């Protein structure tokens, strides 16, 4: 299976996905399930763990959600295919005072992660499971299930075929032709493929389809934002 590692390395050399601030839906997930910021130095705990919850950013890129996770009072971990992205993420995490950054932020394919079974309380993943072939995505979902504790929550987002370039029910793979993420894979989802891929491992706790329309020309894209609970 071609995981397009070389194309991702080239993409990071061009500084694609050098993103430094957390995505709004990740902030929302943390506030609801993990930790809600109530002041400059105060947080309201939303989880039931005794100590800090272990949170994995699956496909962490340069680490924006690992850093956010650490700021939100967790034991933060990250994993990504790209060596250059991981190297940047480790440097950033060390500057932010994350202990054992080199042990916690790891280069690996997410189909076979070097973490024990039932290790993480939560997993978050933004723009990742739709950036690979369907085959690899299904294996990654199975390995995510393996590394999570029973009942743990998993946030991810997926691009929907419901955009102005496809018919609303489209699902399938396309090779990215634009300069941004050139030669990587874009995997489009509909409700059926989401159910087929996730239902052996997770229950869907929340699912929202968020549409963004350019009002100048009516072109639109949409993404599913999903909260899953490990079966
Ligand atoms: C669009 S980027 C998103 C990065 C990050 N989640 C963020 O929100 O900034 C997609 C990421 O998925 C990673 N990726 C793609 N296929 C992967 C695989 N098989 N295993 C691990 N990471 C993978 C890429 O290296 C890239 O960092």
Q: Could you please describe the fold and organization of this structure?
A:
The strands form three sheets. This protein has a seven-stranded mixed sheet with strand order 5-4-3-6-7-11-10. The protein has a single domain (5-14, 54-230), classed as Vaccinia Virus protein VP39 (Rossmann fold). It is α/β, with parallel strands linked by helices and 231 residues long. It has seven helices and eleven strands. It is globular, with a radius of gyration of 17 Å. β1 and β2 form a beta hairpin.
Structure summarized in a few sentences:
This protein has helices at 5-13, 24-34, 64-71, 83-95, 101-104, 134-147, 191-198, and strands at 35-37, 43-45, 54-58, 75-80, 105-107, 120-125, 148-159, 172-175, 185-188, 202-213, 220-230.
Strand content: 25-35%
Question: Whole-number average pLDDT?
Answer: 97
Secondary-structure-derived class: alpha/beta
* Total domain count: 1
Q: What is the molecular shape? A: globular
CATH superfamily: Vaccinia Virus protein VP39
Bound molecules: S-adenosylmethionine
* CATH architecture annotation: 3-Layer(aba) Sandwich
Largest sheet: 7 strands, mixed
Strands, total number: 11
Would you give the CATH topology? Answer: Rossmann fold
Gyration radius, rounded: 17 Å
- Helix run count: 7
Spans of 5+ residues with little confidence (pLDDT < 50)? none
Cα end-to-end separation: 27 Å
Order of helices and strands: HHEEEHEHHEEHEEEHEE
Helix content: 25-40%
Q: Strand order within the widest sheet?
A: 5-4-3-6-7-11-10
Q: Indicate the CATH class.
A: Alpha Beta
């Amino acid at each position: 299976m071609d995981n397009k590692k070389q194309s991702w390395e080239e993409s990071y050399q061009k500084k694609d996905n050098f993103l430094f601030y957390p995505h709004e839906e990740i902030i929302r997930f943390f506030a609801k399930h993990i930790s809600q910021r109530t002041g400059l130095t105060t947080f309201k705990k939303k989880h039931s763990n005794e100590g800090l919850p272990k949170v994995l950013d699956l496909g962490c890129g340069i680490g924006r959600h690992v850093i956010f996770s650490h700021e939100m009072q967790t034991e933060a971990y990250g994993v990504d295919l790209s060596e250059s992205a991981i190297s940047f993420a480790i440097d950033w995490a060390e500057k932010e005072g994350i202990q054992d950054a080199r042990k916690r932020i790891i280069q690996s394919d997410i189909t076979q992660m070097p973490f024990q079974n039932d290790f993480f309380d939560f997993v978050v993943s933004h723009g990742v499971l739709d950036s690979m072939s369907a085959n690899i995505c299904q294996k990654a979902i199975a390995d995510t299930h393996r590394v999570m504790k029973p009942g743990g929550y998993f946030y991810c987002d997926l691009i929907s075929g419901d955009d102005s370039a496809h018919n609303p029910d489209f699902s399938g793979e396309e090779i990215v032709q634009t300069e941004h993420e050139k030669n990587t894979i874009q995997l489009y989802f509909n409700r059926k493929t989401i159910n087929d891929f996730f239902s052996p491992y997770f229950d869907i706790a929340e699912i929202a389809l968020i549409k963004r329309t350019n009002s100048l020309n009516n072109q639109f894209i949409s993404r599913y934002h999903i909260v899953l609970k490990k079966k």
